[in-house]
Design brief:
344 residues; alpha+beta; TIM Barrel; four-stranded antiparallel sheet; 21 strands; 33% strand; globular
């Protein structure tokens, strides 16, 4: 819990927060503040992909063909400790497949980390040093399937030593954008608890973005979870920018969904902030229909604090430092990145 949270908890009188006496939360961090939902293009991305070069079943061309067939326009091939990409004498994947190539690799000498937009990063088993090397190379990093490296404690809580370890990684490495909340249909289900715990520590000053990726090794794993990047133009500069600012959302199919994909997770149509009314309003659709209020949940600190498409954050507890939204449909769940708050 950050110091501001402790202050917020301390200003309680007779069981009532100061919001009873006129205090309100103020939105100070909004990853979608600059998004024009009427003009922006939504691009489906996978940022954790393997080929035959590191245990995958598909060759590079096959991976691009399969992702193109599933509607993707951004792909990072992240083979283990190896950068697999189209050479300058090969084809242009954007022209050939309609997919922008993001250069990257999965550093797997210790806890697995995806390094994106990297060129020459020195490998090391020390994750702190690795992240510093990624930063020195002007790359960006994502923690892959962190649930592989920690076990929930009593009542499913994140153990203090686990939180301390991850807190150190994010505190000391600005290049570390966030973590995979979803890996292959949420294979490590407790990682969403780790995400909420980290948001409680760092928000609103230091956002930790969430990601959903296939960790694809074979074709049947494609299109299980993905990011939707909100881009004005499909190029490396724009992709890097929205990843850094959190101007994207991510989705995961229902684990029970068959390979035929009869239904799709929600697609966000708009997300508006009214600073006067102190509200956030999200609208989403699934399978071609706008979703009713029963499909939306607003969460903080691992608990639901509101339901419906509109959140009146002016009525929330002053101790809250972030809120995020989850939107569910028959096809799966869509997650926003967190919104940060401070007492006004």
């Amino acid at each position: 819990m950050n110091s501001r949270n402790k202050i917020g908890l301390a200003i309680v009188f007779a069981g009532m927060s100061l919001s009873v006496f006129g205090g309100h939360l103020k939105l100070v961090s909004n990853p979608y503040a600059g998004v024009d939902w009427d003009s922006v293009t939504q691009h489906k991305a996978n940022l954790h992909t393997h080929t035959v070069a590191s245990g995958g079943h598909l060759f590079l061309r096959q991976a691009y063909e399969e992702y193109a067939r599933n509607g993707y326009t951004v792909l990072a091939v992240t083979d283990h400790n190896l950068c697999t990409e189209w050479g300058t004498s090969d084809i242009d994947p954007l022209k050939e497949f309609g997919i922008l190539q993001v250069k990257g690799q999965e550093f797997s000498d210790s806890q697995h980390v995806s390094g994106l937009f990297v060129h020459r990063v020195k490998h090391t088993k020390n994750i702190q040093n690795l992240l510093k090397n990624v930063g020195h190379d002007e790359g960006l990093a994502i923690l892959n399937h962190p649930g592989r490296y920690w076990i929930p404690g009593v009542n499913g809580m994140v153990p203090p030593d686990t939180l301390t370890r991850y807190r150190s990684l994010f505190s000391e490495n600005p290049c570390l954008l966030g973590l995979e909340v979803i890996n292959a249909n949420s294979f490590f289900k407790h990682d969403i608890d780790l995400w909420d715990s980290l948001l409680g520590v760092f928000m609103p000053e230091r956002p930790v973005w969430g990601f959903a990726n296939d960790d694809m090794h074979k074709a049947s794993q494609i299109a299980k979870g993905w990011e939707v990047l909100l881009l004005d133009a499909l190029n490396e500069k724009e992709v890097r920018s929205v990843m850094t600012t959190g101007s994207y959302y991510f989705s995961a199919r229902s684990p029970t969904m068959s390979q035929r994909f009869e239904h799709e997770p929600p697609v966000i149509i708009s997300l508006a902030h009214d600073s006067t009314a102190r509200t956030l309003h999200v609208t989403a659709a699934a399978d071609g229909e706008v979703l009713g209020s029963g499909h939306y949940r607003w969460l903080a600190e691992g608990r639901t604090i509101g339901e419906g498409s509109v959140l009146d954050y002016g009525k929330l507890e002053l101790s809250l430092c972030y809120v995020r939204a989850e939107i569910s449909s028959q096809g799966g769940t869509t997650y926003t990145n967190p919104f940060g708050f401070m007492p006004d």
